Amino acid sequence: MSVAFRRDSDEEHREPEFELPIPVGPNLVTERGLALIGEKMAALKAAVAAESDEASTKKLRRELRYWSTQAATAQIAPPPAPGEAGLGSLVTVRREGREHQFRIVGHDEADPAAKLLAFTAPLARAVMGAMAGDLVDFGGKAESLEVVAVA
């Protein structure tokens, strides 16, 4: 007998929708990052209230649960010591004669295209705790990265 004759609906054959993955480890944020989480939650709550389509509402609520969890677990990172690279720092590095500048931020604030790197990104991890003038290991090479400035 064909499956078409045995089932009442297609619901039982749909892929399950899992919750959005929460990054592992502490949810460290900058003050700006915490404000962005709040803005995102407010926008999603408004979108849920305005949405009439059940499938769209379900997706919005899923996303709202993610941001609610991020807001509940957010910890504003303590400021790094003066001149030391840490969460919130603007870091300038030199590698192979070229300078690159980026800011170290929390997971939800990260946007590599805007030069905002999560504190768990390999480049950010390499410079965490370093100061201007330090040489750090990166990309499997010893002392391949020079920290030019930390603000």
Automatic annotation (TrEMBL):
<feature type="compositionally biased region" description="Basic and acidic residues">
    <location>
        <begin position="1"/>
        <end position="17"/>
    </location>
</feature>
<dbReference type="InterPro" id="IPR001437">
    <property type="entry name" value="Tscrpt_elong_fac_GreA/B_C"/>
</dbReference>
<dbReference type="InterPro" id="IPR036953">
    <property type="entry name" value="GreA/GreB_C_sf"/>
</dbReference>
<feature type="domain" description="Transcription elongation factor GreA/GreB C-terminal">
    <location>
        <begin position="83"/>
        <end position="150"/>
    </location>
</feature>
<protein>
    <submittedName>
        <fullName>Transcription elongation GreA/GreB family factor</fullName>
    </submittedName>
</protein>
<feature type="region of interest" description="Disordered">
    <location>
        <begin position="1"/>
        <end position="23"/>
    </location>
</feature>
<dbReference type="GO" id="GO:0003677">
    <property type="term" value="F:DNA binding"/>
</dbReference>
<dbReference type="GO" id="GO:0032784">
    <property type="term" value="P:regulation of DNA-templated transcription elongation"/>
</dbReference>
<dbReference type="Pfam" id="PF01272">
    <property type="entry name" value="GreA_GreB"/>
</dbReference>
